[in-house]
């Protein structure tokens, strides 16, 4: 028997930069959706940054990021993201509605009214129609 103590257990290497792939971006996107639903918009934004950096053309990721900006009261950033979505998808009723809510929250009621009406014209959902306040 030897009098030398056994060597200490080896520690795992410190985590380095996380490798990303299309699969990790999908996982991050889905996790961001869950975080936003759980009312953690800042957590969602952290995950979406890498997704959008890798896929800047992904409108769904940009729309989710716009919603997260809105939920965290970053209204100017939300407005810019919603506007970018609408440049790519001018017939996206939800993006018009969400941009209208952003304008409304910023006190720009005329701009809000225009987008509420566009949302209602594109998709006559009761919520959109009520917000558009069409006169009879």
Structure description:
The chain is mostly helical and 136 residues long. Helices cover 67% and strands 0% of the residues. The chain is built from seven helices and no strands. Helix 1 (22-37) runs antiparallel to helix 2, helix 2 runs antiparallel to helix 3 and helix 6 packs antiparallel against helix 7. The protein is elongated and about 90 Å long. The N and C termini lie far apart (97 Å). The model has no long low-confidence stretch (mean pLDDT 90).
Note the run of SSEs as H and E.
Answer: HHHHHHH
What's the story with the biggest beta sheet?
A: none
* CA distance, first residue to last residue: 97 Å
Percent strand:
under 5%
Poorly predicted sequence stretches spanning 5 or more consecutive residues: none
Tally of DSSP β-strands? 0
Number of helices: 7
What percent of the residues sit in helical stretches (DSSP H or I)?
55-70%
SS class: mainly alpha
Average pLDDT, to the nearest integer?
A: 90
Radius of gyration: 22 Å
Shape assignment: elongated
């Amino acid at each position: 028997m030897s009098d030398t103590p056994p060597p200490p257990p080896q520690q795992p290497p410190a985590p380095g930069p996380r490798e990303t792939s299309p699969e990790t971006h999908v996982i991050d996107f889905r996790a961001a959706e869950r975080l936003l639903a759980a009312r953690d918009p800042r957590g969602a934004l952290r995950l979406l940054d890498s997704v959008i950096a890798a896929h800047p053309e992904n409108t769904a990721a940009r729309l989710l990021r716009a919603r997260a900006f809105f939920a965290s009261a970053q209204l100017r950033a939300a407005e810019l993201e919603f506007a970018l979505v609408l440049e790519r998808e001018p017939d996206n009723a939800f993006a018009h509605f969400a941009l209208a809510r952003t304008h409304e929250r910023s006190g720009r009621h005329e701009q809000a009214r225009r987008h509420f009406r566009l949302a209602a014209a594109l998709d006559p959902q009761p919520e959109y129609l009520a917000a558009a306040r069409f006169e009879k």
